[in-house]
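Weekly structure sync, notes
Attendees: PL (lead), two postdocs, one rotation student
Agenda item 3: pending single-chain targets
PL asked that the sequence for the first pending target be pasted directly into the notes so everyone works from the same version. It is reproduced below exactly as submitted, 296 residues in total.
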Amino acid sequence: MNRKKKIGPSRLLLHLIFILLCLICVIPLLLVVGISFTDETSLMVDGYHFIPRVFSADAYKYVFSGAGSVLQAYVVTIAVTVLGTGLHLLVTSMLAYSLTREEVTAREKISLFVYIPVLFNGGLVPYYMLMTRFLHLKNTIWVLILASLVSAVNVLIMKNFFRTIPNSLIESARIDGSGEIRTFFTIVLPLSTPSLAAIGLFVAIAYWNDWMTCSLYIETPKLHTLQYLLQSLMNNIGYLQSNAQASRSIEQSLGTLPSEGARMATCVLAIGPIILLYPLLQKYFEKGLTIGAVKE
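Predicted structure, written out during the meeting:
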């Protein structure tokens, strides 16, 4: 006989807490979407509502008024995120794996060299000189990728994860004639999928939301990222609003300017694509919770 499992008070309380946390995260996002599709005059009169009182797409029309630049920024941002995340995971995993092998005699010194940047930072000026004067990467797409190519924290996380992989698997591969590179790509990396997915998600979000690097090293409009472009758009709206009383014509034009809706529309455009990664990587997070419990 199938018996229904009883839900205890503690488990019920835990479910209610997680439901509440989900609502706290989802409700503001739904409100932002609703505001972005609300007429600006209705926002001033009726305030914020989840369902627009007066539906309007003027905010998105304003944001896409320079559609070519927005689409170009999307292409640049997607390219930087995909290439940057892939290269970051490759370099991080290879460096972390080498630090776990006993054959690398200088692994302790290299680990110390990796750990030092966690405590100390060289500063913005030396880094700017490195990227512009020595590597000559200014106004290139590679500066957007290489600026965050290696993270000492992620290297240490991957290093600890590789230690959980049974050494007998690697020794068996060596007996079968597999080299280090083949062993790494065919055995170690497939077993490290949960860790790579977790780190890759956070790295992809960091690349996607990065606008500071573009503001420092990029002057060519064709290489502007989406976040930098939207930040410039918000600055332009603020500038027009602050100078609205200087000219009556500007004040009249601002009457139709969807300033508040445009802010919300930029939020939707900025988080829309990257938020799709969470459902795709959910199963890897769940597997990562238990994979470390496997003993040699």
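Discussion points:
- The mean pLDDT is 80.
- The two ends are 39 Å apart (CA to CA).
Action: rotation student to compare against the earlier draft before next sync.
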